[in-house]
Write a structure and sequence with these properties.
Chain lengths: ~190, ~190
DNA sequence: TATTGTTATACTCTATAACTATA
DNA sequence: TATAGTTATAGAGTATAACAATA
């Protein structure tokens, strides 16, 4: 089992300013003078040339988040012409593939909170992308359906999303890509 | 090359209410009457029993985001006793492993925006977890250093984070976990 | 009594413009 | 002129409590 790199940086000794290593008084201090001329500040310390983030890179949460944000960044750019952000896209896609799905089902599937879905649904409806029809056997619920306009939009949007994803995962072989999807689902499903 | 499931739901025909399939007038309408009794609403449609999200599950961005959020959810819970959210943790960890790192370097490494880091740094400093020392050879920059208190906190916090991650990835073998980390880094690095 | 959908609202996160001081 | 750090602020995302209608 690979042990992740745990905080192995030496714990800093509690040296206050000039508390330890006091200057020898009365001496010309050539060494320290030169050092202070090179480093203008009084309380200086070593600088960092290249940042080591190997510990964070051993964490799944960190890597998953960074990878997700990297993809979402391009997603926002490419899907902007469709007026779809990631959540809108997920909602529309799920409605298209599940005609008659309810808000509650959408929330459960996409891990959204009901109050936050209300505005999204209203927006998609006012854009003429979805319709709301009475639920066949539950008067409280409302079935969501994509309009022909919404359906056509999503055919294009899903095409764009799939292309964008293949670009972002260009360093992966098809087999690696499939593996990655399966392993990620083992975490959240 | 595996082709992801593209929107294959049949595009809904533009049938208005009763426009197509009109009832034969003068007929007893037993079939339709029974159907309407079972479904009380006038404009009803089929209900969805189980939601199909196979298309979204073919997208790397969707899976990476869902996996990240799943881990972060537990992270927030377990790291709350330390008063650390994911960003605080990443910042503190990077400072601990890179004594003297600057704000700008933190931003570049962790993909943060400078204005959003200011408050974080001030908060960590006021908690006595980090110190700000002049940069050795750049009067504009400030080197960040963990205090002994901050260092001790992070030893515990990193231990907790690593444990939590192993729980969340319990369905993965060590080899799969290593593979997953490497593949994710191929996307965002 | 429990659930669907909704409103109002607060809190957090993220992003942009502009300023200062130093290089 | 360019960069490090900062301020102020706007916008988006996420969260809880409470309500009406229906099961």
């Amino acid at each position: 089992m690979p042990t992740p790199p745990i905080l192995k940086t030496p714990r800093p000794v509690a040296t206050e300013t000039g508390a330890s290593l006091p200057d020898a008084p009365g001496q010309p201090l050539p060494t320290k003078a030169r050092r202070e001329r090179a480093s203008p500040a009084k309380n200086a310390a070593r600088a960092v040339d290249t940042v080591d983030s190997s510990y964070l890179q051993s964490l799944m949460g960190y890597n998953a988040r960074r990878a997700a944000l990297s993809i979402i960044e391009l997603f926002l750019e490419r899907l902007a012409p469709y007026g779809l952000k990631p959540v809108d896209f997920s909602v529309m896609s799920t409605i298209c593939h599940n005609p008659g799905v309810t808000s509650r089902q959408l929330c459960a599937t996409l891990n959204l909170l009901p109050p936050n879905l209300v505005g999204l649904i209203q927006s998609l409806q006012s854009r003429g992308l979805i319709e709301r029809k009475p639920h066949p056997h539950d008067g409280r619920a409302v079935g969501l359906h994509a309009t022909p306009k919404g359906h056509d939009l999503m055919v294009q949007a899903e095409q764009t999303a799939t292309e964008l994803e293949l670009e972002k995962t260009a360093k992966l072989t098809p087999a690696q890509r499939k593996t990655l999807l399966a392993l990620l689902q083992k975490i959240y499903l």
